[in-house]
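[job 4471] stage=fold_predict status=RUNNING
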Amino acid sequence: MILDPFKMLYAIERKRDLSESFNQARARLSREVWDRFSIGCDSGPLSKVGVAWQPISQQWAQRLLECFASSEMVALRREDYVDGYLSNLSAPIINYLNTVNEYRAVTPDLLTTLGKFLADHESQISQWINHSWRASSIRPFNLRPTNVAGSRHLDGWPPAIRKMFILPGGASPETGTTWFRLRNGDELLFDHPRPCLLIFENSVVEHGLVSGHAPRPTSELDIVPARKTITEPFYPGLNGWYPWFPEKNKLHHLSAVLRKGLRSAT
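[job 4471] inference complete, writing structure tokens
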């Protein structure tokens, strides 16, 4: 039997950290490849301020809330991601996310419903970002009422990858919301207590959690540039965020990472 070295690599990473030289080489090459792939993806209305939103219908809100009600509680786990995806490997970060979020299982019903939602809102999302896209990941959760403070930060991802929240109960200081520093320097405390769709440049505009006093249902999706728009979302596990490399043939990029990592280590 011939062993796949890349599958072995990810199997190891699910249990323990890989070498720092490999991690740094992978992160640098990932950013280079995504930046080349997403040339021209900073020209839509979203790029003017970094945050956009619109109301969604009560019918969509009800369908999403029904999916939440039928989905069991689960925990975010280090090993829960597919090969080739960026994941959270830090135990303190995973513990923090499980503290502030009550994660829900991604059921077939939720996956189907989100796909129909994205198809129904495709034109608005495309108008906001002005390029083809797809949803690379899904994380449904209730934002818990908590006294844990959220840091104001940038996520450090390739800037053309954005975060989207579908909020069937809205978001406000009462239920928990997000603070933003917009591209023009203005501050925004998002306060829209009715059902809505929110998208923001999580690696361009500084943002931070503002906890509330009641659970807030949220479907979080990561939106990545694509050669053509695909509204069917991909589920890579709760701890999968976006693929390290955009192209289907990732073996070339991973081979380059291994070579760079080995050179850096010698």
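[job 4471] summary: The first strand starts at residue 51 and ends at 55.
[job 4471] exit 0
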